[in-house]
Specification:
Elements lengths: L1 H53 L3 E3 L5 E3 L1 E5 L4 H13 L2 E5 L3 H8 L1
Parallel strand pairs: 3-4
Antiparallel strand pairs: 1-2
């Protein structure tokens, strides 16, 4: 009698255990994905709030002297590189242009 009663409840116990394990794994996965989502949102928000300070061409050193920032741009002969160089030049940055051939840089400087 004891053996028959024990065998009858065994599948229920096993299925319930697997269900709780699956629920726990799904909860852990959901918590990790939520944390990752919040972390990326707060990183984006912090970067968005600080972006204006990186687009200023002049700043102050720790000694209080005014300094002009420089920007290094690779691939200036492409449309994106050219537009970025033009934008930063209008902002007043010192530019360091890097390209494979001298002719490409000469065409950008003109």
């Amino acid at each position: 009698m004891f053996g028959q009663d024990f065998n009858m409840h065994m599948p229920t116990v096993a299925l319930t255990s697997f269900a709780f394990l699956g629920l726990g794994a799904a909860s852990l996965w959901a918590m990790r994905k939520t944390r990752c989502l919040f972390r990326s949102f707060f990183n984006w928000k912090a970067a968005y709030n600080n972006s204006s300070r990186f687009l200023e061409s002049k700043g102050k050193s720790k000694a209080g002297e005014e300094i002009t920032y420089s920007a290094v741009i690779f691939g200036v002969s492409t449309k994106v590189g050219y537009a970025y160089a033009k934008y930063l030049a209008e902002k007043g940055f010192n530019l360091i242009l890097i390209e494979r051939s001298k002719e490409a840089i000469d065409s950008v400087e003109a």
